[in-house]
Design a protein that fits this description.
about 290 residues, alpha/beta, D-Maltodextrin-Binding Protein, domain 2, 2 domains, five-stranded mixed beta sheet, three-stranded parallel beta sheet, 10 helices, 13 strands, about 25% strand, globular
């Protein structure tokens, strides 16, 4: 086939352009592909040590488990154990950053990497086990219902058609929503809001962890825990982000060590016994 010089020049230019587009497309494909960093078994612990601080989610308004004292310092049973965890992990209990959380956002804080560990009176449930990894439990708990002494609630039948106060995202919220739709629920984010609502008469009673309502009733003698144990007995445990096996394994080993060393018992004596006195046997509360 005979072609002119002009035609050859046009064909050559087209070929170069075509090759350039192919190369460009290849480069584009390689840069568009997101390369995920390889997750090693020790990434989370190494990162915590690199940061020099472990971030632990705790409550600010749930005494005697997690709360802020008059000086704004974190106190409570969960906090005491968390300090020992920080000391074992980083060699200093002060190398802990307490991140204040609420019941409804504990899971999200782990998912969003806002905290490394949750130590916020976290009850183990099948639904939560699907989205976070729980470590060794350290407390036993069930639900309780607190109400005014003048109008005590001692049976769930009394709550039919009435307003019951609960916290969003708690086991009380889940239990009554699923098992007792005949009871109207008024939900709040923070414990302080919920208990203030009870004092204001916005509900006839309040349901929460029995250990919490028993402690609150001792501080508020005009109220009584008419139902001291409701539903199944559950366990409270710290939690880490789903799939973080390295941190989970380390935390389980550390909690086992702390339990054997009597640290959890000491935390009970310091924070819970002054509240419950001899009305509760610690063996009925602490997980061996």
């Amino acid at each position: 086939m005979n072609i002119s010089l002009k035609q050859f020049t046009h064909l050559l230019a087209a070929s170069v352009l075509s090759l350039g587009l192919v190369a460009c497309n290849k480069n584009t494909a390689s840069t568009d592909k997101t390369v995920e960093p390889e997750q090693t078994a020790t990434n989370s612990i190494e990162q915590i040590k690199k940061n020099g601080v472990v971030r632990i989610g705790v409550f600010s308004d749930k005494p005697p488990f997690g709360y802020l004292d008059a000086q704004g310092k974190n106190q409570g049973f969960d906090v005491e154990i968390a300090k020992h965890v920080a000391k074992d992990l980083l060699g200093d209990e002060n190398k802990v950053q307490f991140v204040l959380t609420e019941a409804a956002n504990r899971v999200e804080y782990l998912k969003a990497n806002k905290v490394d560990i949750i130590f916020a009176n976290f009850t183990v449930t099948p639904e939560r086990q699907e989205v976070v990894d729980f470590a060794k439990p350290y407390l036993k708990v069930s639900l309780g219902v607190v109400s005014p002494k003048a109008k005590p609630i001692t049976d769930l039948a009394q709550l039919k058609g009435q307003t019951l106060l609960v916290n969003k995202g708690t086991t009380a919220d889940s239990f009554f929503s699923k098992s007792h739709p005949e009871i109207k629920l008024q939900k709040y984010e923070q414990n302080t809001e919920t208990f203030d609502a009870l004092k204001d008469g916005r509900g006839v009673a309040l349901a929460h962890d029995n250990l919490l309502v028993l402690a609150w009733a001792k501080e508020n003698p005009n109220y009584t825990v008419g139902i001291t144990s409701l539903g199944q007995h559950d366990l409270i445990a710290p939690a880490v982000k789903k799939g973080d096996k390295a941190l989970l394994d380390w935390l389980n080993q550390d909690l086992e060590k702390l339990s054997k060393a009597g640290v959890i018992q000491q935390a009970y004596e310091k924070t819970l016994k002054p509240v419950y006195g001899d009305s509760i046997n610690p063996k009925d509360l602490l997980v061996e």
